[in-house]
DNA sequence: AAGAACATCAACCGCTCCAAA
DNA sequence: CTTTGGAGCGGTTGATGTTCT
């Protein structure tokens, strides 16, 4: 049984909403392949819930009730929802079921390489702040990202000899400081310098460290209905730099004792046709896997080498960024300079210490 | 063939945050 | 200012499928 696709989930949703009977094979009691039980094995009442509320997997009927109620009334108070919707569940369970599973604006199934790269980069930047990471993958839930990290990405990185916490190669000897220590030190240093300017400190800290913020990048606001936190701008800025710099390099390049493989377009075409060397394309746009077993091979080769080289450079970028910001005269800069980010990029591109990375 | 070990992911738990009273 | 309760977050659990021995 294959993974159930989002289209099948949509089918289920439609069936639920229309009170129609979905095809049995499409009832995703568990989205994961092979799970077939239709009855709730944990139907027993939990002793922790004095009111006799149910725990465990949701039934199709419960899903139908929840979706129907929210479609008609909105969720309102989650605590009050179960009684109104006729569910023997706590509000928390309803909220979780809706946000992680039934909500119409989420996609399920395999993560793309682009999504994986984004998760890894954001994790390097934000740590285990899954909800913050999820805001940059709008069709994925924090729970799904967290699970995917714990079950796939973390193990893969460990296999590659990269510490999934620090995002640093375990063999790296150029420093005793972990990635996060360096990052935190840089941030604290920046904050210390700014401590005499409470307003700016507050803005900087909220916008760059926490990612959720009362202030947003105005240039992004002009083109989107939903304002984006600035940490995403950092990521985008970084991706913009790396994409422009790494598109057509043809040989192995070294950086701080780490070696990366960068493929030419011609080489990519060759490898597309010939899988015998087990190397896959690094552009993240497609998947040439022929069997699940190939995935591990793919996932431990150049794709992630590239991602991690990317991350390593991003670390330098973020550290540089913090120092840059902390050295600026910040009064009004964040709020008034619409070209702030493009200026940063221009500046970094011309900065000798940073341009040497390329 | 059997069962132990591992992988996956939905769901739960406990905690924190924050707004309202 | 303090208390309270709702919402959300991150860590963890446990049921089930898959792979290994």
Explain what the structure shows.
The protein is mainly alpha-helical. It folds into two domains: 97 residues, Arc Repressor Mutant, subunit A (Orthogonal Bundle); 178 residues, no CATH class. The protein has 17 helices and four strands. A two-stranded antiparallel ribbon has the order 1-2. It has a two-stranded antiparallel ribbon with strand order 3-4. Strand 1 and strand 2 form a beta hairpin. Helix 5 packs parallel to helix 14 and helix 11 packs parallel to helix 16. The protein is elongated, with a radius of gyration of 24 Å. The two termini are 46 Å apart. The relative contact order is 0.08. The N terminus and C terminus are likely disordered. It binds a DNA duplex (21 and 21 nucleotides) through helix 4 and helix 7.
User: How would you classify the helix and strand content by structural class?
Assistant: mainly alpha
What's the total helix number? 17
Oligomer: single chain
- Fraction of residues in H or I helices: 40-55%
The major pleated sheet works out as:
2 strands, antiparallel
Number of domains: 2
The rounded distance between the terminal residues' Cα atoms is 46 Å
Radius of gyration, in angstroms, nearest whole number: 24 Å
Instruction: Tell me the strand percentage band.
Output: under 5%
Q: How many DSSP E strands?
A: 4
**Overall 3D form:** elongated
Spatial order of the strands forming the largest sheet:
1-2
Mean pLDDT: 54
Low-confidence stretches: 1-50, 172-181, 184-234, 245-307, 324-342, 347-358
H/E element string?
Answer: HHHHHHHEEHHHHEEHHHHHH
